[in-house]
């Protein structure tokens, strides 16, 4: 199977147009193609087959980066990481070191994980309007499950990422396109109690350290609720915002 994967990436994928993975459906097509290779070549060891396919994608990204002086070439050379991420989730790869390396490679290029988080928080269509790309997972529900999957592996590996404000856990890495707010703050402001509960379960920080530039995650939620009261004084505050406030208050010391 390794020979087949090497041929795919070295002889086929490397010759495709640089923008061949810009569209989500193109990334999905390539993911499905690799999944077909896994089914046809890995036999009963689909876990091992998925692991090798993901590692082949990571090698392609790393090799292209090294050949360019350590700078990611973007385009297909970077988007192949999201093909790998989708493979990991689709096949529920349990090899934490491989998933961890994928997350580290994404962070090394982007310094954020917003493409993994934002679909679960704001849905799959909003990302296209804000950032010009679509989530690699089909529905918000699938995005939520994918976030849980990556949070689980990042927690198992105790991953830490160096951000401008210091070392952060995966769950607390800021979202660059959203005012460098943490996923917890964005989820609270959006009133997504289900995502908020998941983030809190995996140790998201509600009250930052005094030295941090962040503020308590309750602040944007309270601002949002205040705006709703001002704009719609006759209406009750939506239940999802109340649920978010209750979840955050339970975490305060």
Q: What characteristics describe this protein?
A:
253 residues, mainly alpha, Serine Threonine Protein Phosphatase 5, Tetratricopeptide repeat, two-stranded antiparallel sheet, 3% strand, Ankyrin_rpt-contain_sf, ubl conjugation pathway
Task: Write a structural description.
With 253 residues, the protein is mainly α. It folds into two domains: 1-110; 111-252, Serine Threonine Protein Phosphatase 5, Tetratricopeptide repeat. Helix content is 62%, strand content 3%. The chain contains twelve helices and two strands. The protein has helices at 2-12, 24-41, 46-67, 76-90, 96-110, 114-122, 126-131, 140-157, 183-190, 193-201, 218-231, 239-251, and strands spanning 160-163, 166-169. Strands 1-2 form a two-stranded antiparallel ribbon. Helix 2 crosses helix 3 (46-67), helix 3 packs antiparallel against helix 4 (76-90) and helix 11 packs antiparallel against helix 12. It is elongated and about 65 Å long. It starts with a helix and ends with a helix. The model has no long low-confidence stretch (mean pLDDT 91).
Please identify, by name, the CATH architecture of the largest domain: Alpha Horseshoe
Sheet of most strands? 2 strands, antiparallel
Q: How much helix, percentage-wise, in residues?
A: 55-70%
The total of beta strands comes to: 2
Strand % is under 5%
Computed over alpha carbons, the radius of gyration is 20 Å
How far apart the termini lie comes to: 53 Å
Q: Could you name the CATH topology of the largest domain? A: Serine Threonine Protein Phosphatase 5, Tetratricopeptide repeat
Helices and strands, in order, run as: HHHHHHHHEEHHHH
The structural domain count equals 2
Note the total helix count: 12
**CATH level 1 class label of the largest domain:** Mainly Alpha
- Principal-axis shape: elongated
Strand order of the largest sheet: 1-2
Taking all residues together, what is the mean pLDDT? 91
> Class by helix and strand content?
mainly alpha
Low-confidence stretches: none
InterPro entries: Ankyrin_rpt, Ankyrin_rpt-contain_sf, ASB17
ANK repeats: 179-211
Keywords: ANK repeat, Ubl conjugation pathway
């Amino acid at each position: 199977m390794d020979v087949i994967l090497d041929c795919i990436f070295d002889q086929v994928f490397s010759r495709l147009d640089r923008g061949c993975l810009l569209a989500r459906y193109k990334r999905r097509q390539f993911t499905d193609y690799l999944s077909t290779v896994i089914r046809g070549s890995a036999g009963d060891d689909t876990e091992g087959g998925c692991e090798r396919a993901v590692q082949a994608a990571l090698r392609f990204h790393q090799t292209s980066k090294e050949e360019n002086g350590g700078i990611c070439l973007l385009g297909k050379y970077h988007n192949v990481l999201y093909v790998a991420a989708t493979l990991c989730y689709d096949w529920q790869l349990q090899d934490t070191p491989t998933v961890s390396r994928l997350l580290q490679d994404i962070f090394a290029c982007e310094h954020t994980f917003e493409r993994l988080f934002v679909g679960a928080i704001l849905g799959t269509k909003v990302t296209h309007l804000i950032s010009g790309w679509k989530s690699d997972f089909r529905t918000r529900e699938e995005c939520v499950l994918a976030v849980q999957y990556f949070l689980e592996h990042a927690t198992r590996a105790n991953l830490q990422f160096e951000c401008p404000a210091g070392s952060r856990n995966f769950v607390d890495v800021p979202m660059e396109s959203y005012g460098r707010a943490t996923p917890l703050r964005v989820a609270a402001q959006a009133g997504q109690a289900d995502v908020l509960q998941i983030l809190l379960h995996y140790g998201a920080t509600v009250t930052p350290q005094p030295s941090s530039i962040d503020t308590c995650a309750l602040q944007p939620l309270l601002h949002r609720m205040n705006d709703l009261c001002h704009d719609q004084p006759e209406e009750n505050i939506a239940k999802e915002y109340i649920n978010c406030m209750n979840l955050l208050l339970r975490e305060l010391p």
